[in-house]
User: Which sequence fits this backbone?
């Protein structure tokens, strides 16, 4: 077989481009090709999130999310500074607005310390010193949280990698021969041959895994996150979060002052009817049917239906969304909220209905699959890329 490259990466989001960057840094001379179905990089999860550089406070000590987010946040800030990418270290508040949330807030502070994060616990008066319009019973101040332009980061990673990046290259077939390599056919009819395949396809990672002949044992269930923009951005100075429910990987409706000075509010989390279902009007019957056919989707729904009803209510009722925001920001009015671009979270769900709560990377012959990399994957993308690169180069052997 005549190889077009040594490592073939499917997916031009921040994780795929970080992987390409890490491979060429670790093994100069390694030929890397990235296939991305969109006309440019970072068009989905990377480019449609709130731009937050997460501290790592939320994640179970010792997990990949905790380790990679803490390490990745520091590295992301350094990377942005090195390449002149807009960013700011603003810090954030996690605010309890109900007495029932106080034990969870204290536990979160302890988890942050276990993860090596500097936290400060605040009372009501101290909250208003940081955020005059925010109200709460208690809060945690996390200094290491920030914001950046993740699309610019992804673009810079791609340029610095030296990889060949092919846009408009949607993968439709994978022919893997463990003793030789992998051949991929795109929708345009091009065939690209590599010695190792790396699947960083995000919303479609489980489908690419099955194309390669592997059963991922999870399915991506898309959850749409809907955002509003605050018409009075002066109400919020930095980043303000509610106390999250530990049973879910979603962080709740939060307030985020971005690098452009605007304030985004959201997201909620509602099931999408397509993997790129950025609105209720986007329906792809084949994708919706595939989600419905996965037993884990129904089991998840039965287990968490009360939570889901609340999210759906906030999706269809602006008044309900405003009500949720007012718990943190009492001064907000309905006319202050203007619809903004939505995102879709690629959440891996197990057959038993469990939500995969950590990054999930699996190896197969000649192949690495990244099967769960939602938030905080953008923050953690540099360490994730190095780990995937290490595994890919291990499969590659001497070039």
Assistant:
């Amino acid at each position: 077989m005549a190889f077009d490259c040594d490592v073939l990466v499917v997916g031009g989001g921040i994780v795929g481009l970080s992987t390409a960057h890490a491979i060429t840094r670790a093994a100069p001379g390694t030929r890397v090709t990235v296939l991305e179905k969109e006309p440019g990089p970072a068009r989905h999860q990377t480019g449609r999130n709130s731009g937050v550089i997460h501290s790592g406070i939320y994640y179970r000590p010792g997990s990949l999310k905790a380790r990679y987010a803490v390490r990745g946040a520091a590295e992301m800030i350094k990377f942005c500074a090195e390449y002149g990418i807009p960013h700011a270290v603003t810090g954030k508040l996690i605010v309890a607005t109900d007495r029932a949330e106080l034990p969870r807030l204290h536990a979160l502070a302890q988890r942050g310390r276990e993860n090596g994060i500097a936290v400060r616990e605040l009372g009501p008066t101290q909250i208003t010193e940081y955020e005059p319009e925010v109200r709460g019973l208690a809060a945690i101040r996390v200094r290491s949280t920030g914001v950046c332009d993740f699309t610019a980061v992804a673009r810079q990673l791609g340029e610095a990698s030296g990889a060949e990046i092919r846009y408009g290259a949607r993968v439709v077939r994978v022919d893997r021969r463990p003793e030789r390599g992998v051949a991929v056919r795109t929708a345009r009819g091009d065939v690209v041959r590599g010695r190792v395949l790396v699947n960083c396809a995000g919303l479609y990672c489980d489908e690419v895994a099955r194309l390669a002949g592997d059963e991922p044992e999870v399915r991506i269930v898309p959850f749409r996150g809907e955002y509003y923009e605050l018409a009075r951005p002066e109400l919020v100075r930095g980043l303000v979060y509610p106390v999250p429910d530990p049973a879910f990987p979603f962080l709740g409706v939060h307030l985020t002052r971005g690098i452009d000075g605007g304030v985004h509010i959201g997201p909620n989390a509602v099931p999408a009817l397509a993997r790129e279902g950025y609105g209720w009007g986007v329906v792809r019957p084949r994708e919706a049917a595939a989600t419905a056919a996965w037993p884990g989707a129904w089991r998840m729904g039965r287990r968490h239906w009360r939570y889901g009803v609340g999210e759906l209510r906030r999706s269809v009722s602006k008044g309900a969304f405003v009500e949720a925001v007012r718990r943190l920001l009492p001064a907000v009015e309905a006319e202050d909220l203007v619809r903004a671009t939505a995102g879709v979270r690629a959440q891996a769900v197990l057959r038993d209905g469990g939500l995969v709560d950590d990054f999930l990377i699996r190896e197969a012959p000649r192949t690495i699959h990244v099967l769960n990399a939602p938030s905080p994957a953008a923050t953690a993308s540099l360490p994730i890329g190095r780990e995937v690169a290490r595994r890919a180069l291990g499969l590659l052997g001497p070039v």
Remarks:
- The mean pLDDT is 95.
- The longest strand covers residues 191-199.
- DSSP finds eleven helices and 22 strands in the chain.
- Residues 64-83 form the longest helix (20 residues).
